[in-house]
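Re: the 282-residue chain
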Amino acid sequence: MPVEMRNVDLHITDDIMLHIKHLDGRFVGIKGSGIPYLDDAASYAVAVDSAAIVMDMSSLNALMNEHVLGHGRSNVEGLRVGTDAEGHLVQTGEIEKGIDIPFKTKGAVEATADGRIRVHAKSVRGFGLPVKPLMKLFSVEMDDLLKVEPGHGVWVDDNDLILDPQLMLPPPQLRGKVTEVHVEGDTLVQTFGRGVPRALSPPAVSPNHIYWHGGTLKFGKLIMVKADLELIDMDPKDPFDFSARRWNDQLVAGYSKNTANRGLKSHMPDFNDLRRRAPRER
């Protein structure tokens, strides 16, 4: 079913947030009945046709350490990812290889032909010394040192890292091809598809919103057929702060209005403005 997002801070988890400048795509049901169920982020995938999505370093570090490399999935410990003034990603940490080897790499980012992200190593240092000349001398590649468990969206290709956002993120799954990527300040900016917004019809009423129009959508105890549901930011002065897992708390704290065309406009406060409270049955 078609979906449109504009100026949304999408909390995948409490620690991982994507700033969605704009996104046009489809919600695809991937469990059970095949109907996307908003209360279960694992029940649907977001198939992205076109988008501009920004991730800050805090979210990228949480993603890499908790969901990609953590919990014994890699021999990397204490990974920290940052940026430099030249637009590179800078990574530091330790590699377990008999002994703990402290490392620092600096890499340029680019989109691959198949829609993933390549981090091309410009420099690699271990124990504070240049490592690439020694690696070349002894015919050692990065994949001989760095081990990553398959299936979590990270591969080592010679001395480069290949990142696949489709496999890295926790639910909801993001499906789409990265066509351009660059570092901007302390953020990683990704373009999917053409990267050009395309409005649904009829248009949304709010500049900051998530809008579903057409198809079937389930939320709470309701099923909306030929869906016409817009989630509206009650404070449009800043991005719409939205939680994929605790959106019902936002729904309860706001208010909703039916439209003449039997659609629903739900006005919500930002997730960060709510008290941090455990969800309870209502």
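Residues 62 and 219 are 28 Å apart (CA to CA).
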